[in-house]
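hey so i finally got around to running both of the ones u sent me last week. sorry it took forever, my laptop kept dying halfway thru and i had to restart like 3 times lol. anyway pasting them below in the order u listed, first the sequence line then the structure token line for each. didnt double check formatting much so if smth looks off just lmk and ill redo it

first one:
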Amino acid sequence: MAPPRPRERRGRPDRATVFGWIAGLSITAGLAALAIASDTWGHDIWSGIAPDWPGGGYGFAVTVGGLLPVTAAAAILPLTLMNWKESRARSCAWAAASLPGAAASAPLLLVIAGAWRPKSRHRGLDCYSEGGPCWVHEQYPYVWAVGLAATLVGAAVVSGAVFLYLRDNKRSATARPATRPSTSEPPDPPPPGCPSRT
């Protein structure tokens, strides 16, 4: 009979695992909060704010769709600059810098969730009440197309701006410094009658 194997001691989980769990729980909590907020305020947004917006519901969809890529970029770009190995303090600062973009994205996602029409088997009377998702699609039948087009245009503009910024930064970083003109004067010619050194 073989002797029993000693139990292996497990060490602490690595940072990537912990960060993954925190990110997963945060996303789950955010989606749950978004669903609750959509049920609470979604009807009021589309029945109260959208009709009075310049351009009505379609203008409201253009505004929300155009702002969403901007706020998403403001939330994501600082996270790409984080480097825990280089500096923890700077990484924490970049993480904090992404919070305003994430906070600005939340109401926009709430507006989108308020107009998200459920599948037909999940539609109740609440869906067709004033401000409900089905009501939104009856009042503004092409709101999804207008919002999607505005989001794509906004994403193209933001992507182009980021590309130009990165290209200019790379170009200025690789540019060689201009050579300064020499301030030293050429040596004087030897006096007449002296042999010149060659």
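and the second one:
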Amino acid sequence: MNGRVALDRLDHLDLPAHIEVWAQGSWHPAWLIASDHKDDGWYGLVQYEAASGPETTEWVSVDRIAPAGDLPPSH
């Protein structure tokens, strides 16, 4: 996912946390508003606004969440 280092867990972040989320084929600035550890790993409830639509709130796996400001290399 464009060289971005995803988080491996979410329990150390104070909520809400400013993060980046991989959605709709690119990274977007977002807010992490909740987290949950399930049998298959960490999930975060994120809120973001993609260029192509309205604000979205959804649960995503931790591999789609990165620290804010961790910019990927230019392509």
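quick thing i noticed on the 2nd:
The first strand starts at residue 17 and ends at 23.
anyway thats it, ttyl
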